Amino acid sequence: MNNKELIQGISIEREHVNTYIKIIRYFDKYNSFPEPDFVYSWIAEDHLNESKEKRNPNYYSMLILMEKLMELGITSIDIKDKFNLEENL
Q: Of the given ranges (6-10, 19-23, 62-66, 85-89), which has the lowest mean pLDDT?
């Protein structure tokens, strides 16, 4: 596992803090954890809200595309080089 990617991922995934709080509140109220589909829908909402803020409502379409690129062996370095993007993207 790439430690740099893990650290970056943890930082990014902190965007789900509101979902974490929802889980705690749900547990406090019902003394049980929510059904997995509740949690999954809250996370999906987090992503869709974030993508709307960034003016890109197609989060999951982009995610599918990214996963397909990875399957094809295309890396972020390949994309950065092809489009002359900054190194820190």
A: 85-89
Scan for tokens 């109220």, then name that residue. Answer: 29
Quick check: 44 and 64 in contact, CB under 8 A?
A: no
Tokens of 41: 């829908």
What are the domain boundaries of the chain?
1-56, 58-89
**CA atoms within a 13 Å half-sphere pointing along the CA-CB vector of 41:** 5
Contact present, 41 and 18 (Cβ < 8 Å)? no
Whole-angstrom distance, CA of residue 36 vs CA of residue 19? 12
Strand positions, DSSP E, 1-89: none
